[in-house]
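Subgroup meeting minutes
Present: P.N., E.W., G.H.
Scribe: E.W.

1. P.N. recapped why we're keeping a running log of single-chain structure predictions: easier to compare across weeks, and new members can see raw inputs and outputs side by side.
2. G.H. added today's entry (241 aa).
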Amino acid sequence: MTAVERTPRQNEAGPPLGILAVVFTALFLAGIVISTVMAGGVTFPSPFGSSAEILAYFHDHQNAVQVSAFLQFGASVPMAIYAATASARLHNLGIRAPGATIALAGGLLAAGMLALSAMFGWVLSRPEVLTESAVVRALQDLAFVTGGAGHVVFLGLLVAGIAVPGLLAGLLPRPLAFAGLAVAVIAELSTLTLLVSDAAILLPVARFTSLAWLIAAGFLLPRSRAGRTGSRRQARKDAAV
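Output recorded in log:
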């Protein structure tokens, strides 16, 4: 009777991780692409650029900035759900090491930083703000630091929190787990952006590889130990054939 009662709880793994990852990645990329098209091909300015270019961008492309902020904020919601679901699934798979909690904390903080960056971006789309150049620069710096290093570093923690138990417990293919560890290291190194502007190149590298990795891990992380064992047996059968 006890075994019968426990089975449903073990199978409660939440929404499909892979689908969630596809959704928040699509929303994030849509924010970049659509806002760039709306701005006539002009990309969001770097905080390391000239003040004149930065002010001109926000003055001339307020609608593009607003749409970008809207979609970026939208991406933060499924990202938070992904983190909570991944952590719960790791616990259901018997992971009691800190990895599951690290994944939860990293994912929630990454989502929070992304949402905060979107809010700063939305404020930058308000005409009333654009009359003060110092305020525009300050808000853009805040949008960059929260959506850049602030978001990417914690996104790396989400990846590491899944990759480490995925490797040690055999929940993920070893190449994918090792790739996740490499991506997480790059993400943590992007902290250097706060000291060296040239290190900003690490941000897009870590961001987009993390998003791709989370999609792959979302589809491959099993819902139960039985599912992982079954997939291994099936792989052996396919190899034998």
